[in-house]
Amino acid sequence: MNFNKLVRISLASLCITVLLAPSLANAQDKEKKRLQAAGIVLDDFGKMKESIPSSLLKVTEGIIIVPKLINAGFVVGGKRGRGIAMVKREDGSWSNPVFVTLTGGSVGLQAGIQSVELVLVFKHSSSITAIKKSSFTLGGDLSIAAGPIGRNSTANTDYKLDAEVYSYSRSKGLFAGISLNGASLEFDTAADALFYGKGMGPAEIFASQGDPDDAVTKIKACLTSLK
């Protein structure tokens, strides 16, 4: 290869790198915004009097936060949202977040569009870590139920907590017939690679130490304060 051709190739590679750099930064910024939005949702849930009961929080080993689940349709509906998943470690601390997506469809009496802030509480961390590269269906692979309400309500002490996953949501907009049964959860490996770098799969992220971003620090603090 002659010198001039080598120079042209080097310049072309440099141009591509320069052009892709803003796109990569913008993509990483989107994931940071998702983390920030998840932290706000969790903080708001923590301030609500009628929120997740302490009796459930004591046995919680995993959580998924979807800041914006869009639910829309007319007779035939669909839902999609992007969020984060975290698991509780053996020492009681919370892991770094793995990015997830939730998608699903439904048929029935429904009309309109709705934006939902969604929190899914898992009794066992293995239910989240077992997703791996595939996905699972809520109501199919895992039992799901609307979570009991009342942070300090004595009525919750008798709640059986038989389901594996409990859902909590706050709606914005109008919709009838919302349901999470049949919705599919899977890891967003593309988002993980953008935020953490290639080679960091869900298992490595859950096991990683240190907070990769200030938003993660805030989320962990919120989870620790939810008692």
Automatic annotation (TrEMBL):
Which segment of the chain is annotated as a signal peptide?
Answer: 1-27
Positions of the Ysc84 actin-binding domain: 103-224
Name of a matching Pfam family: Ysc84
Q: Which UniProt keywords apply?
A: Signal
Task: Return the InterPro entries for the record.
Answer: SH3_domain_YSC84-like, Ysc84_actin-binding
- Tell me if Ion transport is a UniProt keyword of this record: no
Name used for this protein in its record: Ysc84 actin-binding domain-containing protein
Question: What is the source species?
Answer: Pedobacter jeongneungensis
